Amino acid sequence: MTDTTLRANNWLYIATALYFVMNGAQLWETAIMVPAWTAGPPASLFFFKTAYGLDFKFFWIIVHSIHEIFLLLALFFNWHFRQRRNAMSFLLLIHMGLRIWTLQYFAPTLMTFMAMKVRPVVEPGLLKEAMLWKDLNYIRVGLYVVVNIGYVYISKLKTDDGSKKNIL
After folding, report:
1. Which of 64, 106, 118, 167 has its CA at 20 to 30 Å from residue 74's CA atom?
2. 132, 56 in Cβ contact below 8 A?
């Protein structure tokens, strides 16, 4: 195995492992926190309002930023391996589509819920909106997991295009 291949494999491994860490956090949040706050808004929104209320914003900004830097580094180091480059580019496009969906719908909607006043009632309209958010979130998180598994598959792709070029 050449140094170039070893470097490409290592960066792909690190990016994939970070994706698993990110997905683990998403799965935990989806299994534990989302059902709790979506159970009956505005009464169930107290999770966001206590002195130690939940605020996911900074956590997810940091996690996604670090992860995406490593994804780009992995793509850079695997760029000259055609099969890997094409597969990684495809998965990166799906990942970015999911991020855009998150930034256009999930984050602003969650922030709207977080800003609401807690009242000891369940409003049917808010409950319906929260259930839609929760159901779409299941799809979104599932797609992130599929993309993550795709990166595992990429690690099995051929790294010999007949080129002996050395990068970095």
Report:
1. 106
2. no
Which three-class secondary structure state does DSSP give residue 156?
A: coil
Per-residue confidence (pLDDT) for residue 51, from 0 to 100? 82
Mean pLDDT, residues 125-151? 98
In degrees and rounded to multiples of 5, residue 42 shows phi and psi of: -90, -5
User: Of 9-13, 51-55, 86-90, 94-98, where does mean pLDDT reach its minimum?
Assistant: 51-55
Angstrom distances, CA of residue 144 to CA of 29, 61, 67, 137, 150? 14, 16, 13, 10, 10
Report, as an integer, the average pLDDT of 83-109: 97
- What is the C-alpha to C-alpha distance for residues 80 and 162, in angstroms, rounded to an integer? 10
Neighbour-count burial for 58-79, b at 16+ CB within 10 Å, e otherwise:
eebeebbeebbebbeebbbbbe
Helix, strand, coil percentages in the chain from 3-state DSSP, rounded to 5: 75, 0, 25
